[in-house]
Amino acid sequence: MTSRRNFLKQSLLGATGSLLVPTFLKAFENPNAFAETTDKILVVVQLSGGNDGLNTIVPYRNDLYYQHRPSLAIAADQVLKVSDELGFHPALAPLQGLFDQGYLGVFNNVGYPNPDRSHFRSMDIWQTASPENYLQTGWIGRYLDANCPGCSVADRAIELDDTLSLALKGDHIKGLAMKDPRRLHKAVHNSFFHDVAQHNTADEVNDPSLHYLYKTIAETVSSADFLYRKAGTPAAGADYPQSDFSKKLKTVAQLIHARVPTRVYYVSMAGFDTHVNQRAQHERLLQLYSEGITAFVDDLDKHDRMQDVLIMTFSEFGRRVAQNASGGTDHGTANNLFVVTKPLKQKGFLNNTPDLLKLDNGDLIHQLDFRSVYATILDRWLEVSPKKILPDAYPALDFI
Amino acid sequence: MNDDPKTKHFLNRAAFGRAPGLKTPVNTPTWIKSASHNRPIDVIPAVGGPIPMPGQRTPRDAKARRGKFLDELTQLNTTWVSQMILPDTLWREKMTLFWHDHFACRVRSAFLSQQLNNTVRREALGSFGSLLTAVSKDPAMLQFLNNQQNKKNSPNENFAREVLELFTLGRGHYTEADIRNGARAFTGWAFNPTSGTFVFRPRVHDEGPKTFMGKTGHFSGDDILHLILEDRQTAQFITEKIWRYFVHEGPPDPDIAASLAKDFFRSGYDLHKLMTTVFSSSWFYEPRFVGNRIKSPVELLAGMLTQTGGRFEDPRAALFIQRALSQVLFQPPNVGGWPTGTAWIDSSSLTFRMTVPALIFKDLATEYVAKDDGDANNATNKAATRNLNCAVDWASLAQQFTKASTAETLAALEDHLLATPTTAANRKLVATQASRSTRDDEWMKQAFTAFMSLPEYQLN
Q: Which end of chain B is less packed: N or C, by CB atoms within 10 Å?
């Protein structure tokens, strides 16, 4: 068995601790790789489980809403009325200011044809942007593939989690999943892993599978060290609520303040699958959501970055119009979707209110295909062509 | 085993690697025969109450039900992992695992999941036609693909669609009309929710004439399956899937695939014959196909257990690792099954994979938290154990693998554990890691763990 590889002549970390670009990346070196950026940033917030849209944005004037939900509907006098027909669940009070100022926009009835009511399938559909096929890549992963051919690891999309979602998996390039730069750095500096990274180089590995593995290792170490250097010991920073969700947003803010070149962040919040005893749980979740988002927006605003950041909040489906027999709701279809930046081009409710009369077997019928939202964000915010990322062309929207 | 690369490659693909103490070289047909015993899993007793339908919860005892499902699924999952590596069932289990992905199914009843698993296990090595029919009539599959809702005058096409697209012909080899008419023929295929057995309901069956794949008749569901099997494309499709899983994850050599498909078709879809042919062909052992396939998480885990002879102290540890690596048996992401190849690998998953050996053999702590997939009904979101320890008889391994010199011992271990040679640099790292121990068994533990923490260990 002959060794086909040499020792890496220089270690990944120089004596002073500064980052040296691994040899194999030199061929693709992007001189601006670690430069600061004022490019626009997308933060995707995923509410996992199927957020009940009708109790989030409440049609408080619609009798049908109250008829379908005799005990679960939000009472009209509790609703924060923000238009003639729609209002917020009271737990969204912190967001009302954003809404009134035109920084928070709401799309109603967002979905796709032939809706799937399975969590796994519908979430895959939103993440792969493909209701028709079972893709192994996600829309943000394909964004990376199409726009990041020689990019440095820190240009990746970052997900604030231990596991990477399908949304961030491209064919060639994948996003980076981590809880925070400290944890990632610690995991990677587990000595054996780090030694393997330091003493090998991918550029002399012939086999494509093995090459991919060594490349991934090198990139992981490189990302970890870069992100730790930039944002591993952040300043005390703004006050955020004590929740897992807020903690993730705080980490995103710290990365943005540190001016890492990352363009897309992905944050999930679970618990929305409220089949049973929805009232208290949903209220708690909406509170955690609105407090977290508000703290995040305030933090970015103080650093004068909010105009560069677009937050898009979605859920894999809404819930059925009628409540069920367990004080909750079951899986539904179309749902609302929030967008936040300072300022939006269009304010308030960006399309029609939900139609509770014309239902599909008790479910809302979508009026806006979610891929239009993606296409608009890709084209106008991230400034890339949606071709190669989304299967078809979708009409652009005008909110940004 | 230096002089027996063929056996090594064969066991890497037909099983989960070589178990310590297994005498090599291995005669392929003999091994297959000795590892084909059928042992059904029997840990979930009969159906307990009506099966929960997707997206809904039964109002009474919802919490108790969820707890019960959690326990049952955990038991079912961990039982299969333990059974998967036993020598007398190993080949049948590997094929069952392959079909488990091919006929991907996910239902909220551990009993039905167990039943489907046993159906597949029973038919895994015989005729694909029998396997297809048995799976198509299986209650778990009928429920998962909504065939209970497929009735005369209100058809549900999901089942027919997935049978054609994913299980048999593949896209582009049938029309939407075929799906519609196929669905009509499958009306009436249902199951008794109390006993969990197949039931044909004639009153909801559409007896009218259907045109399917160019033929017209008053087709029943069985007739449709028969017509599907009469199409050579089915043989081609299955052959290609077998190729991608067992031989190489890339487009098959067209001549080889055509020849295999032709024989497969002619033999009446004889799976035993097909697989024996694959494993005894010289092209199977060509270097371009050897040692470069990325293991799925379950294969990675099963390999660690097989190659050490180890067993978890708490079987739930296997479930924790499956969750962390995003492949949980009985919980495929969708009917298309799990990802393959490099889709398993990203920064965080690779880092974790390379840390698993230290976690389970050396008691390394982890802060890892598995992702909650949002489903309140998903039992495994809550399944947890702190004890990931895998007990291994290191002393016995020390006896078996120790050679005259340290270098020779390390070479023997590398040959045993890795499907492809590693770098000189890594060998030094392993040697350094192991040299910290003076006791033989401790040395062996360090060396084994280090080798299994290398990128090369991700491949088979």
A: N
Four-CA torsion A171, A173, A178, A180, nearest 10 degrees:
-150
Residue B445 corresponds to which tokens in the numbers above?
């533990």
Residue that has been written with the tokens 């010289």 in this structure = B282
**CB-nearest partner of B372 from A5, A270, A275:** A270
Pairing of strands A87-88, A80-81: antiparallel
Q: A123 to chain B: which residues are within 8 Å by CB? A: 373-374
Chain B within 8 Å of A27 (Cβ-Cβ)? Answer: no
Amino acid residing at A342: K
- Checking if the pLDDT of A10 tops 50, the result is no
Between vectors from CA A222 to CA A220 and to CA A225, what angle results, nearest 5°? 105
> What backbone torsions phi and psi does residue A346 show, to the nearest 5 degrees?
-120, 145
Q: Is the peptide bond before B25 cis (omega within 30 degrees of 0)?
A: yes
d(CA A48, CA A162): 16
Each residue's pLDDT tens digit, A80-103: 999 999 999 999 999 999 999 899
SS3 B167: helix
- Whether residues A325 and B373 touch (CB distance < 8 A) is answered with no
Q: Taking the model in full, what pTM does it have?
A: 0.87
Total tally of structural domains belonging to chain A: 1
Q: Which domain holds residue A300?
A: 39-180+232-388
Cβ atoms of B123 and B134 within 8 Å: the answer is: yes
Regarding beta strands A264-269 and A80-81, do their DSSP bridges make them parallel or antiparallel, or are they unpaired? unpaired
* A5 and chain B in contact, CB less than 8 A: yes
d(CA B331, CA B380): 9
Beta strands in B155-230 (DSSP E): 189-192, 197-200, 210-212, 215-217
Per the domain annotation, does A273 fall within a domain?
Answer: yes
Q: Which residues contact A249 (CB under 8 A, 6 or more apart)?
A: A43, A240, A267, A292, A293, A295, A296
Q: Which amino acid is at A181?
A: P
- Residues 214..243 of A with a Cβ closer than 8 Å to B: which? 214, 216-217, 219-220, 223
Q: Which residue has the tokens 């060396």?
A: B447
In a domain, A305, yes or no: yes
- Interface check for B333 against chain A (CB to CB < 8 A): the answer is yes
| Predicted confidence (pLDDT) per residue in B114-131, tens digit | 999 999 999 999 999 999
Q: Is the model's pLDDT at A9 over the cut of 60?
A: no
Residues 6 or more apart whose CB falls under 8 angstroms from that of A242 comprise none
pLDDT over 70 (residue A313): yes
Q: How far is A235 from chain B (nearest CA, A)?
A: 24
Instruction: Kindly write down the DSSP assignment for every residue of A181-205, as one continuous string.
Output: HHHHHHHHTSHHHHHHHHH--GGG-
| Whether B37 contacts B55, CB under 8 Å | no
Is residue A239 in a domain?
yes
Q: Would you state the pLDDT for residue A7?
A: 25
Tokens of A142: 């394909």
The CATH code of the domain that includes A245 is 3.40.720.10
Residue A128 in any domain: the answer is yes
Q: Which helix (H) or strand (E) covers residue A50, if one does?
A: none
> Between the CA of residue B334 and those of A124, A133, B103, B318, what are the distances in Å?
9, 11, 10, 21
Instruction: Indicate the DSSP class of residue A17.
Output: S
Provide the CB-side half-sphere exposure for A267 (13 A, CA): 23
Three-state secondary-structure class, residue B309:
coil
Are B373 and A119 an interchain contact pair (Cβ–Cβ within 8 Å)?
Answer: yes
